[in-house]
Write a structure and sequence with these properties.
A 5-stranded mixed beta sheet has the order 7-6-10-8-9. The longest helix has 21 residues. Helices cover about 20% and strands about 25% of the residues. It starts with a helix and ends with a strand.
Length: about 230
């Protein structure tokens, strides 16, 4: 009997060894092993100078700054301001900026406002009030921006001034005055723009802008621009 079981055990061991030899070999790669699969140099590493494909490639996902950062807003004529004096409701009030660029307030009377930032104007009013009040605290808020305007004339439905609340391009401004008359857009649109060196004249083809041939001519309008549509 013992010899029978011994022979049976030897056969079982032989079968296990044969199965192991016949099974497919599976290898597990060691991440730290130096035997690594070669990578495609053209995709992952820069090509040497002078080699094909060595020209600079665009970097995907990098945003470009379209418009430069704007400086702090400066008060203009016809803007509506809220001058708030802390704990003094009698001195807190809304005031318009007059055509001469000044505002009128109790105690200190006229104060020049046009061309200054709200913070600068608040500091000036605060300093003037120190002659009448102990430790005044003044805040200036622009309630309405009415000073940034462009003027549209010529072959538009409703010619006249347009108040700009944000960046407005030429086609948008024309739409804001009701669009063109049946005779408009046949000739160039002329923009008169004031610069430090004098008045600049810019001619733009309305048809080229609308057709998409010259999209760059759809200019961003600036304050005091006069646009004549022909």
């Amino acid at each position: 009997m013992m010899e029978y079981y011994g022979a049976l055990a030897r056969r079982l061991v032989a079968l296990l060894v044969a199965s192991a030899l016949l099974a497919p070999t599976v290898s597990f790669a060691d991440p730290s092993s130096s035997d690594k699969r070669p990578t495609d140099q053209s995709a992952d590493s820069p090509a040497p100078d002078g080699a094909p494909g060595s020209e600079e490639r665009p970097i995907m996902g990098v945003a470009k700054l379209v418009f430069p950062a704007e400086s702090q807003y400066r008060i203009g004529v016809e803007d509506l301001l809220l001058v708030s004096v802390w704990r003094d409701p009698d001195l807190t009030r809304e005031v318009p900026v007059r055509p001469d660029g000044k505002i009128s307030l109790p105690l200190i009377r006229d104060v020049a406002a046009a061309g200054k930032t709200p913070e600068e104007l608040g500091v000036e009013i605060q300093n003037k009030l120190k002659e009448y009040i102990n430790s005044p605290s003044v805040t200036v808020i622009v309630r309405e921006i009415n000073s940034i305007k462009v003027y549209l004339l010529g072959e538009v439905v409703h010619p006249g001034p347009v108040v700009l609340r944000s960046k407005v391009r030429l086609l948008q401004a024309i739409a804001m005055v009701g669009g063109l008359t049946p005779f408009g857009g046949k000739k160039n649109v002329v923009i008169y723009r004031k610069t430090r060196s004098g008045e600049k004249v810019i001619e733009v083809s309305y048809r080229s802008v609308v057709s998409g041939k010259r999209p760059d001519d759809n200019l961003v309008l600036e304050s005091d621009d006069t646009v004549v549509v022909r």
